Amino acid sequence: MGEAAREQTRPGRLGPERGLTACEHLLDEYGYEPVRDTPTQLRLRNCPFHPLAAKAPDLVCGMNHAFLSGYLDGLEVNGLQAVLAPEPGECCVRLGPRGYDGDGQVAQDR
Structure pTM? Predict the structure, then answer.
């Protein structure tokens, strides 16, 4: 899906901020309800698979993580990663800069 989006939009080089903007459109379309915490951090207020995630969280969260990681790779976003950061009532995956831990911190800032 990331490759298809890249081919369709031809965005050029994507850093974290522009990459998140590209991701927001797709994630909103698929029901994740993305919201920016900072210019380079994206939280997903909804899991479209919430009923299934309640029964099999490891499976669903793992699939969401793999899907979003693959989307970033296909879109060729530089310096951005998907991380598991479960919060009650939200998607278990967040997007942020490389080294991001999902809690708003980047590893080198600690």
Answer: 0.80
| pLDDT exceeds cutoff 90 at 65 | yes
Helical packing angle, 2-9 and 57-75, nearest 10°: 30
On the question of pLDDT at 12 being above 90, the answer is no
Residue type, 16: P
- Give the integer Cα–Cα distance in Å for 17 and 13: 11
CB within 8 A of 42, min separation 6: which ones?
20, 23, 24, 27, 34, 35, 36, 94, 95, 96
Q: Residue 6 to residues 18, 48, 80: CA-CA distances in angstroms?
A: 12, 23, 16
The residues near 19 (Cβ < 8 Å, ≥ 6 apart) are 72, 75, 77, 78, 79, 80
Bridge-based pairing state of the strands 41-44 and 34-38: antiparallel
Considering only CA atoms, which of 8, 41, 10, 12 is closest in space to residue 24?
Answer: 41
Only one residue has tokens 């850093």, namely: 15
